[in-house]
């Protein structure tokens, strides 16, 4: 029989891993490092976009961005993995993160708010 302690431990582990794991493309090995989370765009009637070229343009030369990231990570602003939201999205190195409301079912659902971070050479 499963004890209430085991159930609580499983819930805590589940919450912990959801809060630290997003969707990652590429990799981030030393001496590269993950930079800070960025969230400039908010969901609109069209969708939610955390675009790599946009960040590289508006934050060029800043220490939390780079022109050639080795990895990108995205998750919701509430620290959930994108796959848990029901959103339909695309996430690529060249574009970044794109979620269009029109391809989510049911149609009246808006994309969740997301944040992105870059892995950059140190």
UniProtKB/TrEMBL annotation:
Keywords associated with the record: Glycoprotein, Secreted, Signal
Keyword Ion transport on entry: no
A Pfam family the protein falls into: Mucin2_WxxW
Cell compartment(s), UniProt: Secreted
Domain WxxW: residue ranges: 34-120
Residues annotated as signal peptide: 1-22
Gene Ontology cellular component annotations, sorted alphabetically: extracellular region
PANTHER family given in the database record: CARTILAGE INTERMEDIATE LAYER PROTEIN 1-LIKE ISOFORM X1, CARTILAGE INTERMEDIATE LAYER PROTEIN CLIP
Record's protein name: WxxW domain-containing protein
Organism, scientific name: Adineta steineri
